[in-house]
Design a protein that fits this description.
It is built from four helices and two strands. It is mainly α. The chain has one domain.
Length: 119
């Protein structure tokens, strides 16, 4: 494995752990979000990432074409929120009551991800 491949793997693991911590912190701060454990948070972060890379891509592509890419960031946030709600249905240890808390989680994940990618 080259240095680039190791760096890519490390970045993925760091992003996964950071997203899991974000989920835990937001569950602590928001009454409408609950998460059972750090292990559940890691699994939820992994599933949301996989859903975003597959189903999310299929949702974002036509929406970005229709809006000519002008609302790309907003579409990405809304699709991520939908993926979070899907994860809510898949995991009994992860509860998000309502769509707005899912949007808040998506916004925080996007902001933290953007800040981390700058460094």
């Amino acid at each position: 494995m080259g240095v680039t491949m190791k760096t890519t793997h490390m970045n993925f693991i760091i992003e996964l752990l950071v997203n899991a911590v974000i989920l835990l912190v937001l569950a602590y701060m928001m009454r409408s979000v609950a998460i059972k454990s750090f292990g559940t948070a890691i699994l939820v972060a992994l599933v949301v990432g996989i859903l975003n890379a597959t189903v999310g891509l299929l949702l974002r592509l036509p929406l970005n074409i229709v809006t000519l890419g002008l609302l790309s960031f907003v579409i990405r946030l809304l699709v991520t929120a939908i993926m979070i709600k899907i994860a809510d249905k898949l995991f009994s240890g992860f509860i998000v009551k309502g769509f707005l808390p899912a949007v808040v989680i998506a916004v925080v994940i996007a902001i933290v991800g953007s800040v981390l990618s700058l460094g």
